Amino acid sequence: MEKGIPTSRIVLGGFSQGGAISLFTGLTCPDKLAGFFGLSSYLLMHGKIKDYVPTENPNKETPIFMAHGDRDPTVKYEWGQRTAKVLSDWGWKVDFRTYKGLVHSADPEEIDDLESYLRERLPPLGDDTPSKA
Are 46 and 68 in contact (CB under 8 A)? Predict the structure, then answer.
């Protein structure tokens, strides 16, 4: 932001603990973001997080992408499901994707889905879009 990047062009995201931090930061950010995502992640401070959400809640309409393998032994699949449900129940727009047989790792299909989310949230600007040869 200090370098002139508008927050409307910033997407936060991460995997595992990084995803949990990204979800927390996105939910509590005082500025409108382009998006935020968590891969194999969960909701930090689920009992207190509402206390940290700004009153004006600038990211209430910001779509959230979550992805989780149903065989994750590290960050339990149920934790991801519960996070998506809680956030949806609180009014956030959550796209939760399940990847069959995936453990605590990434999957090519998951990365493709994330890429689609990022393309939707960060469309090209102006005429300096790279051309397809």
Answer: no
Residues with active-site annotation: 16, 72, 104
| DSSP one-letter code for 7 | G
pLDDT tens by residue, 111-123: 999 999 999 999 9
Instruction: Read off the pLDDT of residues 36-81 as tens digits, 9 standing for 90 and up.
Output: 999 999 999 988 998 999 999 999 999 999 999 999 999 999 999 9
| E strand or H helix that includes residue 114 | helix 108-121
Task: Assess contact for 96 and 81: CB atoms under 8 A.
Answer: yes
Plot region of 57 (φ>0 → left; ψ -120 to 50 → alpha; else → beta): left
Neighbours of 6 (CB within 10 A): 10
Question: In Å, what is the CA distance from 83 to each residue of 4, 66, 103?
Answer: 33, 9, 18
